[in-house]
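haha ok so turns out i had the wrong file open the whole time. this is the CORRECT one, sorry everyone. sequence first:
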Amino acid sequence: MSKSPYPTGSNLKPPEDCRKTRRIIAEDPDWSLAIVPFLSNLCLQSIVRNFEEKPIFEELTPNQRDFIQERLSTSLPLCVTANLISDGVYWKRCCEQQWDLCDVSHYGHSWKRMFFERRMESIIELFIPDVTEPETVLEMVPLCKNYIKRLDISQLLPPVKEPQKEEEEHGSDLASENEYDRPSMDHFDFSILLDKLTSLEELHLVYRVKQCGMNFEWKMFEMTDRDCESLAKALKSCKTLKLLRLHQSHIEDKKCRLLVKYLLDHPSLRELDFSHNLIGDRGARAIGKLLTRSKLKVLNVCDNDIRDPGAKAIAHALSKNSTLLSLNLRLNRLRDEGGRAIGKTLLNNNTLRHLHLGGNKVTGPTAIALSKVLAQNNTLKSINLSCNNLGEDGGKALEEAMSDNTSVTECDIRLTEVHEQVVSFINQVVWTNQSLERKKQAQQKKTK
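then structure:
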């Protein structure tokens, strides 16, 4: 027998017993093998840390991309992220960091579109001619041109007004020359931008200055002739534009005619809004020409100065037009001559669905002319004659026409001096037609 290496009577135990009683105390009491990060996660974290120097994104799986988007810094240069990071959590984080209100439903539920549209809007609204460098705008174009579909510009700043220098004794040639010095542009020049935004579909513009305070001048709230010419040429070059809204900008006949000149035969324009301006009959004639040369579906010239000659021009254009669905002439001055011209045209127009003639100083003769339309035209869905003095005769004519009408689902004759019983009857017919329309739509959905 082999002898034990330990002396007899010794308290020492074999090595096996030592291992059984050994204790390891971790520095982190919460540490466990279960929370050791995967190697793949460590690699992704390294990508996040070094993204600006070495961006890696397209090669990753969808789950890995989500991991990256949730952790990337929102302060990364746009030249790195704009055309690399797809729409998702990253752009949502960028939007919520910059703006308190972020309703993505107004941007086709695209966070990336929201970010770039609002960023470009902000740059344009703060652009000061001859102070802000055009490169501030142009350097954004390659980064955002594929994502901007709508621009809603709520202000346009004029150039900085230089303080007048005191004239030297006996006058100064330099001072006299300064009187003729003008800035290169009166507001932002859209000709440098619109042709480059290849996805732009809607443009909303207001020439005004918000929060001008004690520096108020009327010039801050109008488009100048130079602005108009520059914008008109830019609009022609923007082949993808579908909607143009240019309101509250002091547009009169001359500017309207120039804008229309460049919009004739526009390939994609479908909606035009020149509301709340100063357009008169000459401008209305130009708009009538546009109706014969374009494929407009919606025209809004509400709150202008169009009278019966302008209304006749628009009516004549409607007789040749087969695309316009909605016409808004509210708050003009058509009177009965213009109103009857519109009514006569609609007897042969089978396209227009919505007509607004509210607040146009029309009376009974216009109501009688339109009653013939309601009796014969099955295309018209809504008509608004509110805030006119139609009188009893006009009310009776409308009542008789509506008694056999099954297509009109809106007929507004409030504040028209029409008897209450007539109003009640017409409302009842409208409600019946609305019910029939809903049933018809429900049946169409079932058949689909």
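The two ends are 97 Å apart (CA to CA).
again sry for the mixup
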